[in-house]
Design brief:
Strand content: 5-15%
Bound molecules: iron/sulfur cluster
Number of strands: 10
Number of domains: 1
CATH topology: TIM Barrel
CATH superfamily: Aldolase class I
Oligomer: single chain
Helix content: 40-55%
CATH architecture: Alpha-Beta Barrel
Strand order of the largest sheet: 2-3-4-5-6-7-8
Number of helices: 15
Low-confidence stretches: none
Order of helices and strands: HHHEEHEHEHHEHHEHEHHEHHEHE
Mean pLDDT: 95
Radius of gyration: 20 Å
Length: about 375
């Protein structure tokens, strides 16, 4: 594809138009450095126009309450069977201790997700266990925003207890969940999912659960696990599904929407061998992640304005670089991270606020603390 065609697509985007999936694929397939530089510049200009220059961050604490999981995703180094070396399941006191630590360190958000542990029940039911997870934190810290439970966890609860997705989401929302991570999306293509996560919910179910959350007033994030077996066409089809999900939420006037897009490049170092061998490398390819970040901004930015790179997957230096490829948010402090770290990521598990601020300032851009839903936090 000639540069002229790329320029025509970029001009179209700069006029405020949505680019088509076919145009998105053209951008993603560029190898010419001049064309890639033009894509980066366009993404950066759109980022500036759509959300300004300020880079945001959130002070949050991760709690991964168990790694015991009934499923066997081919990229997952986190899961264990009960009784395996390294298997863990936090008790209520440990969960409260971690939340308390988060509050003492200034967290406004607890991000809570875990493995699909069939034993996680109260009186033979799964939903009450999850409601107690919520209550354990919210009764002690009602001010904390609880960003919790992926669409896969919602389906797990509904399946085990024989409930509708809406019933599960309403119960979690009413108990105090403030928003839902848009994880477990991986790549929203069932041929890819059959290799990556054959036991997980399929594409249609992921979209249904996220849309149901929006209709019930729970905001969600959105994610994409990139850089493994998927093609540029499948990457763009994934972005197109997210864009159309967000358009539906906006056009239908749903009370909640997608708050951000987070790119999660695949880390394979400790992944199960078959996928690791097939992908053939252990750490993400930075140039691919940056180009995809830029194309995601160009493709989604009119509808999903906030874009976040993953410093856990990429390392802080590379995540900072992504801030000039269309991203406007550096994510959270996390304080503790297991899922990607157990996969062999080199980014670390915790960031001090000052470290994030210094990284942002190195670009000459202002920084600002935000809450989970992108409301600006007042200076203390
Ligand atoms: S990615 Fe999640 S669902 Fe899949 S095996 Fe790991 S913990 Fe289980």
């Amino acid at each position: 594809m000639k540069l002229k065609t790329v320029n025509a697509i970029l001009e179209h985007a700069l006029m405020g138009c949505d680019i088509s999936p076919a145009e998105g694929v053209v951008l993603l397939k560029q190898t010419d450095q001049e064309a890639i530089a033009a894509i980066r510049t366009t993404a950066d200009r759109l980022r500036n126009r759509q959300v300004g220059d300020t880079v945001t961050y959130v002070i949050n604490r991760n709690i991964n309450f168990t790694n015991i999981c009934e499923q066997h995703c081919s990229f997952c180094a986190f899961r264990r069977d009960d009784g395996d070396t390294g298997a863990y399941w936090l008790d209520w006191a440990q969960i409260l201790e971690k939340a308390t630590d988060g509050v003492q360190r200034g967290a406004t958000e607890i991000c809570m997700q875990g493995g699909l542990n069939p034993q996680a029940q109260i009186n033979g039911k799964t939903l009450p266990y999850y409601l107690k997870l919520v209550a354990t934190i919210k009764e002690e810290f009602p001010q904390l925003h609880l960003h919790a439970f992926s669409p896969q966890e919602v389906q797990f609860i509904a399946r085990i207890d024989g409930l509708e997705y809406a019933d599960v989401i309403m119960a979690l929302r009413d108990a105090g969940v403030g928003s839902m991570p848009g994880t477990a999306a991986e790549v929203l293509d069932d041929t890819v999912r059959r290799v990556l996560c054959p036991e997980k919910i399929d594409t249609a179910t992921w979209l249904e659960i996220v849309s149901t959350a929006h209709q019930l007033g729970l905001h969600t994030t959105s994610t994409m696990l990139s850089g493994h077996i998927e093609t540029p066409e499948q990457q763009i089809a994934h972005l197109e599904k997210l864009r159309s999900l967000q358009k539906t939420a906006i056009h239908q006037g749903y009370p909640a929407q997608i708050t951000e897009f987070i790119l999660l490049p695949f880390v394979g170092q400790e992944a199960p061998k078959p996928l690791r061998r097939r992908v053939g490398r252990d750490q993400p390819v930075l140039t691919d992640a940056l180009l995809l970040s830029a194309v995601a901004r160009i493709f989604l930015g009119n509808w999903i304005p906030n874009h976040q790179p993953s410093w856990v997957k990429l390392g802080l230096e590379c995540a900072t670089e992504a801030l000039v490829w269309g991203c406007n948010d550096i994510g959270g402090t996390l304080m503790e991270e297991h899922i990607t770290t157990m996969a062999g990521a080199v980014g670390g598990t915790c960031m001090e606020v000052e470290t994030l601020q210094t990284a942002i300032a190195s670009l000459g851009r202002p920084y600002q603390q935000r809450d989970t839903l992108y409301q600006v936090m007042a200076e203390k």
